[in-house]
Design a protein that fits this description.
about 30% helix; 5-stranded parallel β-sheet; 17 strands; Rossmann fold; DHBP synthase; about 20% strand
Length: about 350
Amino acid sequence: MPLSQKMGWTEHTHERRGHPTNTTILTSDALGPAIRALREGQVVAFPTETVYGLGADGLNDAACRRIFVAKGRPSDNPLILHVLGPEDLEGLVAELPVAAQRLIAAFWPGPLTVVVPATEKVPLSVRAGLDTVAVRAPSHPVARRLIAGLGSPIAAPSANLSGRPSPTTASAVYEDMRGRIPFIVDGGSAEVGLESTVVDCTTQPVTLLRAGGIGRGRLCDVVGEVVIATANSPVRSPGMKYRHYAPKSPLIWVQSTDDAFVRRILPDIVSAHRRWALIAPDVMKGLQASWFYGLGSDDVSAAHRLFDAMRTMDQHNPDAIVVIWESQGGLGLAISNRLEKASGRRVMPE
C-alpha cells in the first residue's frame, strides 16, 4: 500500500536553511499542489517506473539548479529531461540520429534514455555545460500526468541525497529529502527498481553509458552493435563520474552464488564484523547473519529489491553489509554496475 494511503495528507516540519520547512506527501490522485510547485520553480519528488525522481521544470535554469542543492549533487553531473514522447523533442534536440529514432520507436515510453545533440533552449544546468542532452519518456502514469500538467519537460535525477542508494518508495525519498523539498508524490513501489538504461547516440556505433532495465542484447536487436563505455568515455550521462548507490554502512560484494565458495570465504569476510547484514538470494537465508534481506531468485526480482535492501539493512547500522549476487548479461549487467559502484570491496572466485 502506498505510504500516503496509510498516512493521508501528511505534513512534517524540518527546519533547514535554504530549504522548505515542510515536506508533504501527496497521494497520486492529488497532483495539483505538485504541479503548481513545479510551475513556481520548486523541486518535487515523483514516481517513475525505474526509481523516484527529483524533478523541476526542465526549461527553467534556476529551478533545475535547485535540484543540485536539494541532492547535494555536483554541478558537472548532467540531468535527464523527461518528456511525454518524441513530439516533445522539437526545439530541444539539434539532431535526432537514426539510432536514437530506432531506439525511441522500440522502447518509449519506458526505461530508456538517449543522449543526443542539444539546442541552447536546454538549460546549461541540465546539460552540465555539455552540447548534448539526455532525454527519456517515462511510462509511469503519475510521471506522465505531471509532465502533461506542467506543459514542459521535467528534469530529474533520482530523488536521493547524492551518493546514496536510489529510492524506490515514497518513504525512502522522505528519508533523504524531508525538509529539502515541498512535495513528494507517492506512487507506490517502483516497478523496475534500477535507473534507466542510457545510450549515447552521438557515437558510431552507439555507446551504452549506463546499464539499466533494458539490456544490451535488446539494444543490439534494434541498432546492431552497441559498445560499452570505458573509464575514458565522455561523461554525458548521470552515473558515470562519481561514487553512487552506496549505503552508509560498508558494503562488501561477493560476486558468486556458488554455495561451496560462499561458505568457504564468508567466515573470513565477516570475522571482523560482530553485527553484519546479508543481502542474498532467498535460498541463503540460513546463513548466520545478524539480519537478512532476500533478493529473490532471479535478476528481475533482485533489481526490484536491491536499493530497498540496502536502505533497509542500513537502518540497523550494521558493521558491514554483505551482498551475495552473481549476474550475467541483460538486467544482470545493471545490477553488477550498481553493486560495483556501491561496494568498497569485491570478492570473487579466482
